[in-house]
């Protein structure tokens, strides 16, 4: 490609919508246009690997170099350690135990609480049915004795 030829982007409408211009990825003053920040998502395996590497670092400045290389802050590692202590951060062995689209830990807690509530309710219902059966048997005995007395 020759130095005199520049590669231009597609024509786009200006912010006020009245004019068109070629978007070459720069602002009007010539500085590069910043892309909007995107939230990074880290897998559990990545978090555990970075924490292990960080813990193995023993030379002065080595921990800082790891954080710079990965583009992380030390506070993020603190959060990951807390997650690990709480059991929320586990290495995946093949497919995860929850599979795809499984319930979140908070949903699991709600489901366990509901399950316990339903078990208690079932035990009460079974006790009521047992008592009703005994009352029915007792009333039959009373009814039979009343008919034989007459």
Q: What does this protein structure show overall?
A:
The protein is mainly α. Among the domains are: about 40-90, no CATH class; about 105-145. It is about 55% helix and about 5% strand. The chain contains four helices and two strands; from the N terminus they run E-E-H-H-H-H. It is elongated and about 115 Å long.
Report the major sheet: 2 strands, antiparallel
What does the oligomeric state look like here? single chain
Unreliable residue stretches: 1-6
Strand order in the largest sheet: 1-2
Give, in order, the helices and strands: EEHHHH
**How far apart lie the N and C ends?**
119 Å
Number of strands: 2
Q: Could you report the average pLDDT, rounded to the nearest whole number?
A: 82
Task: Estimate percent helicity.
Answer: 40-55%
Our count of helices gives 4
Strand content: under 5%
Structural class: mainly alpha
Q: Calculate Rg over CA atoms.
A: 35 Å
Summarize the structure in short.
The protein is mainly alpha-helical and 150 residues long. The chain has 4 helices and 2 strands; from the N terminus they run E-E-H-H-H-H.
List keywords for this structure.
two-stranded antiparallel sheet, mainly alpha, 150 residues, disordered N terminus
Task: Furnish the topology, listing elements before pairings.
Blueprint: E1 11-13, E2 20-22, H1 44-56, H2 62-70, H3 74-85, H4 105-149
Helix pairs in contact: 1-2
